[in-house]
Design goal:
The chain is mainly α and 419 residues long. The chain has 16 helices and three strands.
């Protein structure tokens, strides 16, 4: 039966890989499924392929090898959850596979492969709401600015879905959405005088940040999968580059700038927590999380963000506050991902998206462009601005990464594997 079961195993591995599952869980879960089917199994993930080897358990026959075309560039939590449910069902009642069982499993896998992502209306609506929620967290209070943030993000989401119909290029979608954000931001700066008007473009670009892929890349690097981790991180950097180029180009065409700094505004705790919950719900839509599974990550995101607000309000630094909030979110999301059979990176990033230092990354890019334009006339304050923005972004990203990854590794190694 290995000839009939092996193709099903490939398809399961590919489903998990291309839809955001962490590499270690991919290896563990497919190995568990192979064992239930009486197969010895090895899988080697690379950025553009999966190399699969299998043979019957205790067999002395040569390994059979298949190289599958697959890239970990998507996140679909519904597909991952349903695939993991199939694995658990098979492993809970292992038995010799007959033609009827094989046909049933093949049909189930095919149904999962054809699951549609979030509807266009949900995707566009939640993009606007998520960006507006980020604007509230950043201190935007003007209804006109919030409305423009909503419209800008919704237009970018609509453009992404439209482009996806005609192009498989990995960078055109974030570039186009960021370009729209830059143009709308430049227009807003001409029409409005609110000091937070710059968040029209910044909040709309924040929802383009590939945080789930950053976490998966970091996990691969920590676990010693250097090649795959570097490839994933390069993919993330290319997306950041596309976002920055699109944003700055849009601002330049519209005569806008990121140079102005808004005065900090204290967002009330209740509003900060509610807005964080909306942002988590928005990324649930981006990652095709079913409505029925949305409540748990929303609650965790709200708790984590509330803890960050309290630390900042009591004089703590932004890096320390972010680290504590991510430790809370990372611990809770590790258990939730295991319980709900969902990809950790997508769940964890959705819960802390509002903490991403997008504004510093975008201002770093703008500072570098200004330095290039000034040439030999570049001043020390211009250089210091670039270094300051870059350092802040790096420290916050490191705090987020450590805060999310360390609890995951500790809990999985010391608790979950001992059950």
């Amino acid at each position: 039966m290995s000839r009939e079961l092996a193709p099903l195993l490939w398809r399961v591995a590919r489903l998990l890989y291309i839809n955001g599952q962490t590499t270690q869980r991919l290896v563990d879960d497919t190995t568990r499924l192979a064992r239930a089917w009486g197969l010895a199994w090895e899988v080697l993930p690379q950025f553009d392929s999966l190399t699969c080897r299998w043979r019957a358990v205790d067999s002395t026959e040569p390994w059979q090898t298949e190289i599958l075309s697959a890239s970990p560039i998507g996140v679909d939590m519904h597909k991952v959850a349903q695939t993991n449910a199939l694995i658990s069902k098979v492993c809970a009642h292992p038995k010799p596979a007959g033609p009827t069982e094989i046909a049933h499993w093949a049909q189930t896998i095919e149904q999962i492969e054809h699951y549609r992502p979030s509807s266009h209306s949900r995707f566009v609506l939640m993009a606007g709401l998520g960006a507006a929620a980020l604007g509230l967290i950043f201190g935007v209070a003007d209804p006109e600015v919030l409305a423009l943030i909503f419209v800008t993000a919704a237009l970018g989401a609509g453009a992404r879905r439209l482009i996806a119909r005609y192009s498989q290029n990995l960078l055109i979608q974030p570039f186009a959405a960021a370009l729209i954000a830059g143009l709308m931001g430049a227009l807003a700066s001409r029409l409005l005088t609110d000091s937070h008007v710059q968040f029209v473009e910044i909040a709309a670009c924040m929802i383009l940040v590939p945080g789930a892929h950053i976490l998966n890349a970091s996990l691969d690097l920590v676990r010693g999968r250097i090649g795959l981790g570097l490839a994933r991180m390069t993919y993330c950097l290319l997306i950041f580059l596309a976002i920055c180029v699109g944003l700055l180009l849009g601002l330049s065409l519209g005569g806008g700038t990121l140079a102005t700094s808004a005065l900090p505004v204290d967002t009330p705790l209740w509003l900060d927590i509610v807005a964080a919950g909306v942002a988590v719900a928005a990324f649930g839509a981006f990652f095709s999380l079913p409505w029925a599974l949305l409540a748990a990550p929303v609650i965790v995101g709200m708790i984590g963000h509330g803890s960050r607000w309290l630390i900042l309000e009591n004089g703590g630094g932004v890096v320390a506050a972010t680290l504590v909030a991510c430790l809370i979110a990372g611990s809770a999301m590790t258990l939730l991902a295991h319980r709900l059979k969902l990809p950790f990176a997508a769940l964890a990033f959705a819960s802390v998206v509002s903490m991403m230092p997008g504004i510093f990354v975008f201002k770093l890019a703008a500072s570098l462009v200004d330095i290039y334009a000034a040439g030999s006339q570049a001043t020390l304050p211009m250089l210091l601005a670039a270094v300051s923005n870059g350092t802040r972004a790096l420290m916050i990203v490191l705090a987020m990464t450590l805060g999310l990854i360390v609890p995951k590794i500790f809990i999985e190694n010391s608790i979950l594997h001992n059950r």
